[in-house]
Design a protein that fits this description.
The complex is a heterodimer of chains A (428) and B (157). In chain A, the strands form 5 sheets. Chain A has a 7-stranded mixed sheet, with helices on both faces. Chain A has a 4-stranded antiparallel sheet with strand order 13-14-17-16, covered by helices on one side. In chain A, strands 1-2 form a two-stranded antiparallel sheet. With 428 residues, chain A is of the alpha/beta class. The longest helix of chain A is centred in the first third of the chain and has 20 residues. In chain B, helix 2 crosses helix 3, helix 3 crosses helix 6 and helix 4 packs antiparallel against helix 6. With 157 residues, chain B is of the alpha+beta class. Chain B has a single domain, classed as Sufe protein. Chain: A (Alpha-Beta Complex), CATH 3.90.1010.10. In chain B, strand 2 and strand 3 form a beta hairpin. The chains are: A alpha/beta (428), B alpha+beta (157).
Chain lengths: 428, 157
C-alpha cells in the first residue's frame, strides 16, 4: 500500500471529477476507472454535453444562411464560440478557422501551399517547388509529418528535419544550417505527444522569420494543458483539436496570422466559402469563411466554446501547475522501479504531462493489458509517432497522460500496475 | 491474479513466447512476406518453403521460418503456427488457418477443435480483446500471403 504524499499546486480534483460522469464508472469487472489516456482524447464535463444538447434542443439551424430566427440564434452561438476560443489563445476571432481536428488544420496549410502554385500573385509567398525546403522534426506526430511529406511529393520540395538528443530534446545544434534561405516552412510540435518535451518555439521562429520562412506549431498537446498566447508564441500558424481539451470530437482550430490567412488560397471548396459564383469561375470570402466550406460542425464548435469556458474558469495556469505536480510525481515514482526507462526528459522542466516508458523484457502491449485488467487505461504502441520509436530503438512504448481530473493516487495505481506486470511476466 | 488475465495469458502462450519454436529466417525458401500491425508497430517477416509447389493444395510445407518483433501474443502465435503447419500439405494448413481465424473472431464464445488446433486453442481468451486479435493473426496473415506468392511465382515461371 502506497501512502500518497501531499503536494503543492494541486487542484480540488474531487470537485472537478463531479463534472465528469464517466470518471465514476467501473471497467473490467468492477474496477474503478483510472483514465490516463487524455493525450489521446480527454473526457468531457457535463457543461460541454449540456451546451451541445441545448443547441440541438433549442437553436438548431444551419449557420450563415437563412434569415429566420433559428438561423440567427445558431449563427450567434457559433460566432460567440469562435470569439471565446480566440480569446482563450489571445487571438482575434477572424483569425480562427474551424476545422475537423488538428490534422485537418495542418493539411489545410499544406494544401494551401501547393494550391498557391495556381493561385494569384497574393499567394506567392506560399509557393513551394524544387530547391525549396520544408523542415520538420524527428518527434512529430504523423499528423505533422505525413502532410509535409506529401507536400514535398506534390511540389518537388525537399523534406528535412531536426534530430533528437538522447534526453528527448530537439537537437538544435544545426539550427542555422537547417533553417536557411531555402526553407519555406518549419513545422514542429509545441509539446510532444510521446516524449512530453516542450519545444522552444519562439527561438526557432526567430530564426525562421530571419530567413523569411513560416512556422507552424502543432499545438494539439499544448493548448489543452497550459496557457498558450499566440501573441508571444512566435508561430505563424497553430493547430489544435477540441476533443483533447474537454470539447467534442469533430472540431478543431487552425489559427493563423491575419495577413497570412488573407493571402492564402483555400483548401476545401464549396458552399459557404464563396463570394460570387459563375458557371466558369468563383471568388472567395475573406478568412475565416474562405476556409470553412459547407455547413460547419456547429454543435461541436459550441461545445468547444463551453470547454474553453470551463478551462478558463479553472485557470490554465492552475491546470498546468496541477499537471506539472502529477508529472513530477510520476517521473519520480516510475524512476524508482527497476527495469523501467522513461523515454523523454526525466525532469519535469520544459516538459508536459505525457510520460512514456519502456519496461524491460515486457512488450508495451502486455504492460497495457495488465494495466487494463486493473482498470488503469493507458496508451500503448507508437502513438502515431513511429520515427521516435526508431530513434530510441524501441518497438513501442507505454504512455500515461494526465489532465486536470487526475490524482496522485492514480499515478500510484499506474506504478503498482507496472510492478504487477513485472511479477506476472516474471521479470522482477 | 485476475482470472481474466490468466485466461488470456495461458501458460502455453507464455511458454511459446519465452522459448519460441523455429524462430529465425532460413534458406532456402520460395516466398517471403513482411506484415506490420500499423496501430502498434508489431512486425513479422515470414518465409515458406514448399515441396511440389505445382501440386497446388497437395504441396507440402517443408519449412516456415520467421523473424518477428512484438508482444507476447504475436510472438507466441508465430511459434505455434510453425509447429502446426510445418510438415502439412497446403490444403491441410488452410483448414487449420481458417479454424484459427474463426476462433479469433469468436469473441470468447468459440469452441475450438483441439485435435485440429492443438496449442493454438490457448488463444481462445485473446478473442475477447478486439485490440489483441490482430496481434494473434499477424503471422497467420503473413503465412497466407507468402504461400499465395509462392504459388504465383511458380505459375509465372
Amino acid at each position: 500500500m502506497t501512502v500518497t504524499p501531499q503536494v503543492e499546486g494541486l487542484l480540488d480534483v474531487d470537485r472537478i471529477r463531479e463534472d465528469f460522469p464517466i470518471l465514476s464508472r467501473t471497467v473490467r469487472d468492477g474496477r474503478p476507472l483510472v483514465y490516463l489516456d487524455s493525450g489521446a482524447t480527454s473526457q468531457k464535463p457535463v457543461q460541454v454535453l449540456d451546451a451541445e444538447r441545448e443547441f440541438y434542443e433549442r437553436h438548431n439551424a444551419a449557420v450563415h444562411r437563412g434569415a429566420h430566427q433559428l438561423a440567427e440564434e445558431a449563427t450567434d452561438l457559433y460566432e460567440s464560440a469562435r470569439a471565446r476560443i480566440a480569446a482563450f489563445i489571445g487571438a482575434r476571432p477572424s483569425d480562427i478557422v474551424f476545422t475537423k481536428n488538428a490534422t485537418e488544420g495542418i493539411n489545410l496549410v499544406a494544401y494551401a501551399m501547393s494550391n498557391a502554385a495556381t493561385a494569384g500573385p497574393e499567394s506567392a509567398r506560399f509557393r513551394v517547388g524544387p530547391g525549396d525546403e520544408v523542415l520538420v522534426t524527428e518527434m512529430e506526430h504523423h499528423a505533422n509529418l505525413v502532410p509535409w511529406q506529401q507536400l514535398c511529393r506534390r511540389t518537388g520540395a525537399t523534406l528535412r528535419w531536426f534530430g533528437l538528443t538522447d534526453e528527448g530534446r530537439l537537437d538544435l545544434g544545426g539550427l542555422d544550417e537547417l533553417i536557411n534561405e531555402r526553407t519555406k516552412i518549419v513545422a514542429l510540435t509545441h509539446q510532444s505527444n510521446v516524449l512530453g518535451t516542450v519545444n522552444p518555439v519562439a527561438k526557432i521562429a526567430e530564426r525562421a522569420h530571419a530567413v523569411g520562412a513560416l512556422l507552424l506549431a502543432d499545438a494539439a498537446q499544448s493548448v489543452p494543458h497550459a496557457p498558450v498566447d499566440v501573441r508571444t508564441l512566435g508561430a505563424d500558424f497553430i493547430a489544435f483539436s477540441g476533443h483533447k481539451m474537454l470539447g467534442p470530437s469533430g472540431i478543431g482550430v487552425l489559427w493563423g496570422r491575419g495577413e497570412l490567412l488573407e493571402a492564402m488560397p483555400p483548401f476545401i471548396t464549396g458552399g459557404s466559402m464563396i463570394e460570387v459564383v459563375h458557371l466558369e469561375d468563383s471568388t472567395f470570402l475573406p478568412p475565416p469563411g474562405r476556409f470553412e466550406a459547407g455547413v460547419p460542425m456547429t454543435a461541436q464548435a459550441i461545445g468547444l466554446g463551453a470547454a474553453v469556458d470551463y478551462l478558463s474558469a479553472v485557470g490554465m495556469d492552475r491546470v498546468a501547475a496541477h499537471e506539472h505536480a502529477l508529472t513530477a510525481y510520476a517521473l519520480q515514482r516510475l524512476g524508482e522501479v527497476p527495469g523501467v526507462r522513461v523515454v523523454g526528459p526525466t525532469v519535469p522542466e520544459y516538459r508536459g504531462g505525457a510520460v512514456s516508458f519502456a519496461v524491460e523484457d515486457i512488450h508495451p502491449h502486455d504492460v497495457g493489458q495488465v494495466l487494463d485488467d486493473l482498470g488503469v487505461e493507458v496508451r500503448v504502441g507508437h502513438h502515431c509517432a513511429w520515427p521516435i520509436c526508431r530513434r530510441y530503438g524501441i518497438p513501442a512504448t507505454t504512455r500515461a497522460t494526465f489532465y486536470l481530473y487526475n490524482t496522485l493516487g492514480e499515478v500510484d495505481a499506474l506504478v503498482d500496475g507496472v510492478r504487477h506486470a513485472q511479477k506476472f511476466f516474471g521479470t522482477a | 491474479m485476475q482470472p481474466q488475465l490468466e485466461a488470456m495469458y495461458q501458460e502455453i502462450i507464455l511458454d511459446h513466447y519465452k522459448n519460441p519454436h523455429h524462430k529465425g529466417l532460413r534458406d532456402p525458401y520460395d516466398a517471403e512476406a513482411h506484415h506490420v500491425n500499423p496501430t502498434c508497430g508489431d512486425e513479422v517477416t515470414l518465409r515458406v518453403r514448399l515441396a511440389g509447389v505445382d501440386a497446388g493444395d497437395d504441396a507440402k510445407i517443408e519449412d516456415v521460418s520467421y523473424d518477428a518483433m512484438g508482444c507476447s501474443i504475436s510472438q507466441a502465435s508465430a511459434s505455434v503456427l510453425t509447429d502446426l503447419l510445418i510438415g502439412r500439405t497446403v490444403g491441410e494448413a488452410q483448414r487449420v488457418s481458417e479454424a484459427f481465424l474463426a476462433l479469433m473472431q469468436s469473441k470468447g464464445e468459440g469452441e475450438p477443435d483441439e485435435d485440429l488446433l492443438e496449442d493454438a486453442v490457448a488463444f481462445a481468451g485473446v478473442s475477447k480483446y478486439p485490440a489483441r486479435i490482430k496481434c494473434a493473426l499477424l503471422s497467420w496473415m503473413a503465412w497466407k500471403d507468402a504461400t499465395s506468392r509462392a504459388f504465383a511465382e511458380e505459375s509465372s515461371s
